[in-house]
Amino acid sequence: MEYYLDNNYFFITCRTNDGKNYFYNEEVRGFILNLFKNIENDFNIKFSAYSILLNHYHFLLHLQIGKDISKVINKINGNISHFLKDAPKPLWDIYHNSNAFDEESFYKILGYIAGNPFKHDLVKNIEDLKKYRFSNYNELAEKYSYEGINEIICNVQKLNWELKF
Questions:
Q1: Beta bridge pairs of residue 14
Q2: Is 57 helix (H, G, I), strand (E, B) or coil?
């Protein structure tokens, strides 16, 4: 049985079932990015952070009704599966869900998502990350400043990318 807390932040990771890079081209990642924007409108929510990589995506969002997370994920994954008609079915692995229960966990998750293109070598430096349109790094920089979001990214302990700045 799954329990979803109301009025909570949800960190979601969803990966393709076989780990293959079905999102390798910009057309597919652009479709997913537009889908995220549509989800925000459809559910009247705002992603706090997101990154779309080559075989998975991450997002952090706040929901008033916790069980709505399954509706959000089903809509995202269903639309991506439909768009990728030639991909094998089932396309999706089980999604992974964590909650940000406090400010410290919120910022760790935010930094992990914002810096994830580094982890997967899709960007090599901050200038590349500024140009990577499949994450909301620049939106986060508007909110926290570039120095602030870079510090949030660097404070993620599992990723060692300080030297890339």
A1: 57
A2: strand
Residue spans per domain, the chain: 8-164
CA angle in degrees (0–180, nearest 5) for 40-15-46:
15
SS3 of 110, please? helix
123: Cα separation from own chain's centroid? 16
User: For each of the chain's 165 residues, which pLDDT tens digit applies?
Assistant: 466 789 999 999 999 998 999 999 999 999 999 999 999 999 999 999 999 999 999 999 999 999 999 999 999 999 999 999 999 889 999 889 888 989 999 999 999 999 999 989 999 999 999 999 999 999 999 999 999 999 999 888 655 544 443
Q: What is the pTM of this model?
A: 0.91
b/e burial code for range 53-88 (CB count within 10 A of at least 16 → b): bbbbbbbbbebeebebbeebbeebbebbeeebeebe
Q: Provide CATH code, domain 8-164.
A: 3.30.70.1290
**Burial status of residue 115 (CB atoms within 10 A of its CB: 0-12, 13-18, 19 or more):** buried
Q: How far is CA 2 from the centre of its chain?
A: 21
